[in-house]
Amino acid sequence: MKKSFLRMFAAGILFSLCALPAAAQSGTGTTMTSSSRVNWITRQFVSSVALDTKKAGIELPSGRNAATVRMHMKLPLLIKDPLLSLCIDNNSLLGDFILDNTLSFEQITDIIEAGKMTQDVFSSDGLTLSTVNTVNMNEIGRLFIRQKYPYTPQQPIDSVSSRPYTGIIIDARGSLPVQGEYVESSVSPCFFPEIWNE
Length: 198
Known about the structure:
single chain; alpha+beta; five-stranded antiparallel sheet; two-stranded antiparallel ribbon; 6 helices; 7 strands
């Protein structure tokens, strides 16, 4: 009970700290906006970021470089909330590992900054500068793999399958029973899923 309370308290502190920069950007005076989406098939975290140069008080065309620098500097803060809410396994979010100091926000920032950025583009009215950042989620997954050498399994006993084997398909649509609980929940994709066969 105490551990659960401490975890909730720490999560509340992280949320409030993370929400401060976002709150400064929200409201009627919003200068920068972002939207993110995750593609678990291609393992990409894609964020679209836009800067309203008029609201930011940047004079164009002389301030184009300043607008680009500001957008790139604010990028990690703008996309941190959806990124830190990615599920690592059935118990943890990415943000949990920053809370317990397993990872640092600097490591996540380095991965964001190493992502692919599209060329900055102005909107048709010439006031909004936008770009798209694509983070390779395999780089985040690498942070959790500690072993240095791959595991070499033993040679399996020969067996003859009744038909060609292509893998396991798990249909996880809808609500499913939660392991060890008397409730049902929907399945969320994560970096290291666990499959229970009980």
